[in-house]
Amino acid sequence: MSPIRILDPFTTNQIAAGEVVETPASVVKELVENALDAESSQISISFKKGGLEEIRIIDNGYGIVKSEVELAFQRHATSKIYTADDLLSVKTLGFRGEALPSIAAVSRLECITRSRNDDVGTRILLEGGRAIAKEEVGATVGTEIRVCELFYNTPARRRFLQSIAAEAARLSFLVTKTSLINPAVSFVLANENRKLLDTRGDGDTLMVISQAYGRECARAMLPLSGADDDYSLEGFISNTSWTKTNRRFQTFSVNGRLVKSRLLQEALEEGYRSLLPKGRFPGCVLHLKADPRKIDVNVHPAKTGVRFSNEKELFNFIEDVVRQTLQKRLKFNFFKSRPVSSRATLEEKETEKTSQGIISFEKNESSDRPFYAQVDEKPSLSALEPHTEYSPGGTGVEKSINEQDAEKRADYYDSETPIPPLTIIGQLFQTYILAQTE
Ligand code: ADP
Ligand code: MG
Predict the structure, then answer these.
(1) How many Å lie between the centroid of ligand 1 and the Cα of residue 211?
(2) Best substitution site from 34, 55, 82 to test ligand 1's pocket, by max atoms within 8 Å of Cβ?
(3) Which residues line ligand 1 (CB under 6 A)?
(4) How far apart are alpha carbons 365 and 139 in whole angstroms?
(5) Ligand nearest to the CA of 64
(6) Per residue of the chain (438 residues), what is the pLDDT tens digit?
(7) What separation in Å is there between the alpha carbon of 398 and the centre of ligand 2?
């Protein structure tokens, strides 16, 4: 039998790396979170070979003071909490002091950083977690971290990874979602020299949605806002014509932290109940705020999961806010329906390529597809759909001409009968009732 002994720090960092650093995307997640915690307003991320050859992150945050650079790479070294009590009210994304030593343990890492309080920067090189060089360098305030040859010393982990393309996609997916929940920070993402994302950082969420997912998606978004005693929910949800076959376009933050949560997804979808065909999912960017004492983010070292203290109550709250938002918009938009003109076709589009969703009316005069109904100009189910006009540069939530017009018309109709007389002309997929009005 071997004697019991305490593991040396290199070994413990390797073990911790197994949990914190699973893929190139998890490296990016940790480093971007550090940049956000350092109050950066600009974060640039580039990578090569799906992040396996190189990941480079440059931020303009407050930097690491000269005397603490080496310490930052030691396990459980953090500037973010001091005692376990602080965990109850932690406001930063990091607090475990594990990311830098874990990443360094499984790569060759270079860090150049200069603190706001120093007039010179520091450059440190680590290999497999051991510092091999440290020197003073000229640098601007902020931090640059270059992670090369990830998992070079843990071949088993490397084999566990997916293809380079899949890892690149995972990494881009993560950065996109992070930029969506941090519209006030400018993110640049590049694969080799190809720019994948470049957000302005001016606080406009719809603009980020437009840049990440395209204008059609941004146009389909409805502003949402609601609060009760314990929670507040804010952001955007897609209208019922913009749907997808998966949940990739659902982004949730809880107290500013990007989370994956079955509960939040299901509550969102419950709010759409019966409004979406089976197998179709809405998109969203939603921010949940809650008393930190009601949630536990320390569920997993990577902190992507979250536990809520009162799940049923939270579920109902989200479902209600979503349903109310849709109800308000759906009803409202009946007034927006414009006169039906004479020539157009209804086209059914199941493909993901069309960001209009499952059904769209297309003005396609040469088509010989069945003629069901006609809608002028707007190529969508706009007569029945909630719709927010979006123009880049604006906040996207100002009232469009259409909405003002609709409000005038709303006055015209008796508030007891908010829906003008409709003639039902058919039903589609046992989901939509097609109707037209004068
Ligand atoms: P944690 O984020 O949990 O504190 P990390 O290992 O990620 O642990 O980072 C250790 C410490 O290094 C942080 O607490 C912070 O003080 C410092 N640090 C890391 N990255 C940055 C950065 N980009 N800018 C400024 N300080 C940083
Ligand atoms: Mg961290």
Answers:
(1) 29
(2) 34
(3) 30, 34-35, 38, 59, 61-64, 72, 77-80, 94-100, 143
(4) 61
(5) 1
(6) 899 988 888 888 888 777 779 899 999 999 999 999 999 999 999 999 999 999 999 999 999 999 999 999 998 888 888 888 887 777 888 888 889 999 999 999 999 999 999 999 999 999 999 999 999 999 999 999 999 999 999 888 888 888 999 999 999 999 999 999 999 999 999 999 899 999 999 999 999 999 999 999 999 999 999 999 999 999 999 999 899 999 999 999 999 999 999 999 999 999 998 888 889 999 999 999 998 888 887 667 666 778 888 899 999 999 999 999 999 876 544 434 443 333 333 333 333 333 333 333 333 333 433 333 333 333 333 333 333 333 333 343 444 445 554 544 444 333 444 567 788 888 887 777 888 887
(7) 38
Residue whose structure tokens are 């990443």 = 103
End-to-end CA distance of the chain: 88
- Give SS3 for 3: coil
Distance in angstroms (rounded) separating the CA atoms of residues 430 and 424 = 14
User: Using an 8 Å Cβ cutoff, are 180 and 212 in contact?
Assistant: yes
Measure the CA–CA gap between 286 and 233, rounded to whole angstroms: 7
Q: How far is the CA of 264 from the centre of ligand 1 (A)?
A: 29
Q: Which ligand is nearest to the CA of 145?
A: 1
